[in-house]
Amino acid sequence: MSTDRGLIIEATIGLRPAEGEAWDQQLKLVRASGASYDTRTRIWRLRTADLDTALSRLGCLA
User: Fold this and answer.
1) Residue 28, by phi and psi: left (phi above 0), alpha (psi -120 to 50) or beta?
2) DSSP type of residue 40
3) Which residues contact 26 (CB under 8 A, 6 or more apart)?
4) Residue 45 phi/psi, 5° resolution?
5) What is the pLDDT of residues 2-53, one digit of tens each?
6) Do 7 and 49 meet the contact criterion of CB atoms below 8 Å apart?
7) What end-to-end distance do the CA atoms of the chain give, in Å?
8) Closest alpha carbon to 58 in 11, 2, 6
9) Distance CA 1, CA 30 (A)
10) Where are the alpha helices (DSSP H) in 1-62?
């Protein structure tokens, strides 16, 4: 695990237009990543200060 405390890794996650099961699957993946939804901007964001955590969380979106 990284011990660097001088950085923040932030990813913006956009969902493709979809309906039904495809939409549900996208939401499942994004929620599993640990991302949070900003109701003001209507964007999903994933923030962490640890590179290993960032790579692991983004990996679940692949």
Assistant:
1) alpha
2) T
3) 15, 16, 18
4) -130, 140
5) 555 678 888 898 888 889 998 998 888 888 888 999 999 888 998 888 888 8
6) yes
7) 21
8) 11
9) 23
10) 20-32, 51-59
